[in-house]
Amino acid sequence: xxxxxxxxxxxxxxxxxxxxxxxxxxxxxxxxxxxxxxxxxxxxxxxxxxxxxxxxxxxxxxxxxxxxxxxxxxxxxxxxxxxxxxxxxxxxxxxxxxxxxxxxxxxxxxxxxxxxxxxx
Length: 120
Known about the structure:
It is a single chain. The protein has five helices and four strands; from the N terminus they run βββααβααα. The chain has helices at residues 31-36, 44-61, 75-78, 81-97, 105-116, and strands spanning 4-8, 11-15, 19-20, 70-71. Residues 1-17, 21-28 and 30-37 have low confidence and may be disordered. Helix 2 runs parallel beside helix 4 (81-97). It has one domain.
């Protein structure tokens, strides 16, 4: 599925179907946690494994068609030393794979608009 352009105030950004909400799922108030109960990122290792598994899968699929993985990181959840280590290891893993573009969402939106136009 190609990203869809959504209007968000003054910003136009692509919608990412392959997002990872980071540690927000560890918050018991989050609906997914209440429904699934056990899906939590307690340690940096939990996060590292989940992110790198998702990345490796999309990286393989990306051999046929480009893929995008979005990491949403909430400060209260990722901003702990043990969890930051998991993020650092995941980013190192991605860099070692190569053929990866690390971009902010404004860069992705501009790239999409330049290639496909604002109407997408």
